[in-house]
Amino acid sequence: MTAPTAIDTIRVAFQADLGAVVTAQDLQSVRDRYLGRKQGAVAALMKSMAGAAPADRPALGKAANVLKREIDAALTQRGDTLDDTARPVGSVDVTLPGRALPFGRRHPLTLIREQVESIFETMGFEILQGPQVEDDYHNFEALNMPPDHPARDMQDTFYLEQPMPGGGEGATPPATLLRTHTSGMQIRYMESHEPPVRIISPGLVYRRDTPDLTHSPMFMQVEGLLVGEGITMADLKGTLVSFLQAFFDAGTRVMFRPSFFPYTEPSAEVFISCVFCEGTGCAVCKQTGWLEILGCGMVHPAVFEAVGYDPERYTGWAFGLGIDRVALLKYRVEDIRLFYDNDLRLLEQFPH
Question: Percent of the chain, pLDDT > 70?
């Protein structure tokens, strides 16, 4: 076989082999077959030129070098194409195992609020949300707390300098504050709705408390209200006992003790059997076997008069429950401040 014929044969065979390349391993095999120093086809071609006529050797050598450069350039180009096909820029290697993504969790106070809402929804209560910046009338006066009432003390309440929008030009703006309870929503609802009323109002409230194990200047509360004809204290007790036993345990014992609140009369504090010692007495319940859980009572007639309800026709009851303190009991957390520290070591212990 003459040298020019051999060069053309190698070129045709190389193109065929290059077209069959699929993997990087295939590409390396073709490179070794044609450009290998000892057994490569181009190296064998160079050795065969020793038998050619002296006058033909320069032209044959030049043609062989051209072939070598063509093969090398074609192999490099195919290698670049092979890399781009195997893994394009920005692509995902679907052969790699998946990476587990961390799941977020609802806050423990959110879990408690949702559980409270769920229980009262099954009893037919409507859930209301209200403004956290409240005026003095809805937060205090309409709830039978006149201007000289101790609850209005500057030491207990966060008063704001800016008035709420809505006061007409030249009008004296009402005093505004961060609400100290969600009872203001009860007044707002009754002002625009006729009885019967069956609502609960959860949300954040604010008081000038010094932070400690059981106190925080911002905490979550839920208040409930039921108004209608013939509502009695027995309805209040039955509802709260059913709620507390559904929330904690069917065997939870409930006790009512007389108390005083300006917007209810009669009023009561509600206790449950200690969830830590099951009523036998421990350091948490101060050896009494009971834990205070909420306050309640029959709505004061003055509150009905403030919203235009006839106190001779309608009666009702109300209660207030601190969600943070309930969470302390439910989850056996010792410090209320932990709920606001956003410490993942605590938050990751709760369900998704």
Answer: 90
